[in-house]
Amino acid sequence: MALRVVSVLKRRLGGPGQKLLRSGNLLSATQHRWEKMPSSVGFPVTSRRSFSKTALIVDVDHNLGIATMKMNNPPVNSLSLELLTNFVIDLEKLENEKRCRGLIITSASPKIFSAGLDITEMYGKSSAHYAEFWKAVQELWLKLYMSNMVVIAAINGSSPAGGCLISLAGDYRIMADNPKYTIGLNETLLGIVAPFWFKDTLVNTIGNRASEHALQLGLLFSPTDALRVGIVDQVVPEDKVQDTALNVMSRWLSIPDHARQLTKTMMRKPTVDRLLKQREADIKNFVSFISRDSIQKSLHMYMKHLKERKE
Ligand SMILES: CCCCCCCCCC/C=C\CC(=O)SCCNC(=O)CCNC(=O)[C@H](O)C(C)(C)COP(=O)(O)OP(=O)(O)OC[C@H]1O[C@@H](n2cnc3c(N)ncnc32)[C@H](O)[C@@H]1OP(=O)(O)O
């Protein structure tokens, strides 16, 4: 199957996209190599590099120009300070790899894409810790939302709150067709409020009315409903998520990088600038909001409820 997908990738880049690239004299080293491949054989993986840190496994295929990043923070891929920090470091590394043009984000543990922000980072800690944590959340969103790479979320499990934000920060979302999985910004269910830039990212994806409805009620959508409202772009059988991501990537990578990147910047920069203008104030707001006794109590009760569900 992987070879078939690679053949599709080669065919795609040999088509109109390639012509566009040639006319703009924009062929990257990776694409040159693709062009030389005879179409009857699969693409041999001659240059593959992996780096793996705590909580993230990154696999870079230089020939395809695609990196796959698997969140690997058992049991539920909660976004701890450590995971957020490593995520940002690895994104920066990939961003600096000229040949890496696409990134697929997925989970190493099927069933849970990410349980969102690590709630234990948000209660019973110092103000300095909350500030550091929030800065890391901001940093990841800023880097991901403005990435020069094509970012595809291969959502192979549930993806509430911060997990949903990671998917929304990408360019395209493919979700596994399993009614047990849900996705959405469910902050209000925890007694907390999605910050304005979470809200903006959702509005940019599904529009104002649907966002208001989803945010006020803290809706967690099944894959079918997520597709209907537009939170995800495609729902596919569970075992087809990765191959579909590669296929979709080939379509996006057939567009000349500079044109696609400038378009992405044009669409997203106003949203990003809103946070950049008030980044420190946003951190202060978060620290003062999360430190409130009532909010600390809500988070504590929510964690207790999560644990009691199992008993
Ligand atoms: C005025 C405005 C100012 C602005 C203020 C800003 C306010 C803050 C905004 C914060 C923004 C984003 C918030 C978040 O992202 S909060 C996180 C939200 N996430 C959730 O609600 C998901 C909770 N988890 C689940 O629903 C389920 O765990 C699951 C993901 C569906 C998996 O289910 P499961 O049955 O497979 O696993 P489960 O037994 O429930 O969990 C296993 C253990 O993991 C612990 N755990 C689960 N989720 C989290 C989490 N997010 N953080 C930390 N720990 C988590 C769970 O407690 C279990 O632990 P244990 O084994 O019992 O010890």
TrEMBL record:
Its EC number is 5.3.3.8. Pfam families: ECH_1. It is found in: Mitochondrion matrix. Keywords: Acetylation, Fatty acid metabolism, Isomerase, Lipid metabolism, Mitochondrion, Transit peptide. SUPFAM superfamilies: ClpP/crotonase. GO terms for cellular component: mitochondrial matrix; mitochondrion. It catalyses: (3Z)-octenoyl-CoA = (2E)-octenoyl-CoA; a (3E)-enoyl-CoA = a 4-saturated (2E)-enoyl-CoA; (3Z)-hexenoyl-CoA = (2E)-hexenoyl-CoA; (3Z)-decenoyl-CoA = (2E)-decenoyl-CoA. GO terms for molecular function: delta(3)-delta(2)-enoyl-CoA isomerase activity. One of its GO terms (biological process) is fatty acid beta-oxidation. The keyword Cell inner membrane does not apply. Its main location: mitochondrion. Pathway: Lipid metabolism; fatty acid beta-oxidation. Belongs to the enoyl-CoA hydratase/isomerase family. Homotrimer. PANTHER family: ENOYL-COA DELTA ISOMERASE 1, MITOCHONDRIAL, ENOYL-COA HYDRATASE-RELATED. Key enzyme of fatty acid beta-oxidation. Able to isomerize both 3-cis (3Z) and 3-trans (3E) double bonds into the 2-trans (2E) form in a range of enoyl-CoA species, with a preference for (3Z)-enoyl-CoAs over (3E)-enoyl-CoAs. The catalytic efficiency of this enzyme is not affected by the fatty acyl chain length. This is Enoyl-CoA delta isomerase 1, mitochondrial. It comes from Monodelphis domestica (Gray short-tailed opossum).
